[in-house]
Amino acid sequence: MKILTPDHAMAADLAAQEPTAADLAAIDAEMPVLVAEVELLDAQIAALDTPLTEVTARRIRRARRKLLAARLALANQSEPVPEVA
Q1: CA atoms within 13 A on the CB side of 66
Q2: What is the pLDDT of residues 63-74, one digit of tens each?
Q3: Cβ-count burial of 37 within 10 angstroms (0-12 exposed, 13-18 middle, 19+ buried)?
Q4: pLDDT over 90 (residue 41)
Q5: What is the pLDDT of residues 11-32, one digit of tens each?
Q6: What end-to-end distance do the CA atoms of the chain give, in Å?
Q7: 36, 63 contact by CB (below 8 A)
Q8: Please, what is the Cα angle at 49 between 48 and 50, to 5 degrees?
Q9: Is the pLDDT at 46 greater than 70, yes or no?
Q10: Gap between the Cα atoms of 66 and 71, Å rounded
């Protein structure tokens, strides 16, 4: 009979929390959307620090278009993205 120490129990618990292949595939498929969302947020935060200029407005518009294109590409994928639990 094997006696589990707290370290063994914690290691087993951590192993059960690892993402599955489906989880990783869903994250990988959504990565362009996540990157585009971060770029938009960066542009919006930069606009808070300074007066809105044409360059800043253009950067925000470009980031919005990139985000919309990434969302459209994700929605139009031929195979469905696995759901993450």
Answers
A1: 18
A2: 999 999 999 999
A3: middle
A4: yes
A5: 667 767 888 888 898 899 999 9
A6: 35
A7: yes
A8: 100
A9: yes
A10: 9
